[in-house]
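Lab meeting, item 3. Inverse folding demo.
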């Protein structure tokens, strides 16, 4: 059981390290390349000639990640254009990729390179009936800088590293005839540490040294 837990800890630490590395890679990349997608989750009729589009958007740009969960109230004739989309922006221009029609277009708008800290901030916003449209949208926006998940996912690998380093040093001490717990010289008392009372491997019956 203990072996399984140890193995699971190692596996989780490795997975966590990969996620942290991914977050760092995205953080660095989004100083140059922005990426986003937009996905309509559901469309339903809200009234005569009116639809509600439940819509999920995610943007990774300028050092941060922003998720936007919205219900957009639109005239129903727009239902045909509510489809998943995916876009990139690069220093050379703005790329827009529509994943349904696999259409890519380049606009003349130049992407402005931002610093890694410029755009990536913590934030949460709930808006209702914004003044920019007369239909009545609701929007939940959550944003965070990408260094944050990078740091969070680094906690488990660091714990793993500290634990294994401690175990490694203990093994080094034991192999040089010192107590694995406190480092006290055990040449005079090989069975039990006189300093901290730890029983050594030499005193346990399974590891008894052959006496000659
Ligand atoms: Zn000791």
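The presenter then showed the designed sequence:
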């Amino acid at each position: 059981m203990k072996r399984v837990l140890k193995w699971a800890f190692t596996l989780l630490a490795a997975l966590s390290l990969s996620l942290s590395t991914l977050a760092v890679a995205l953080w660095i990349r989004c100083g140059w390349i922005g990426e986003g997608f937009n996905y309509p989750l559901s469309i339903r009729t809200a009234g005569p000639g009116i639809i509600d589009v439940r819509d999920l958007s995610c943007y990774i740009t300028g050092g941060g990640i922003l998720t936007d969960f919205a219900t957009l109230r639109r005239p129903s004739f727009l239902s045909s254009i509510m489809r998943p989309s995916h876009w990139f922006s690069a220093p050379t221009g703005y790329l827009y990729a529509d994943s349904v029609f696999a259409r890519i277009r380049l606009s003349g708008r130049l992407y402005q390179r931002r610093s890694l800290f410029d755009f990536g901030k913590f934030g949460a916003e709930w808006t209702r009936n914004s003044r920019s449209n007369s239909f009545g949208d609701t929007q939940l926006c959550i944003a965070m800088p990408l260094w944050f998940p990078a740091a969070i996912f680094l906690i488990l690998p660091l714990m793993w590293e500290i634990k294994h380093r401690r175990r490694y040093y203990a093994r080094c001490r034991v192999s040089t005839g010192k107590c694995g717990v406190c480092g006290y010289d055990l040449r005079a008392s090989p069975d039990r540490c006189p300093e901290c009372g730890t029983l050594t491997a030499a005193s346990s019956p399974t590891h008894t040294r052959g006496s000659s």
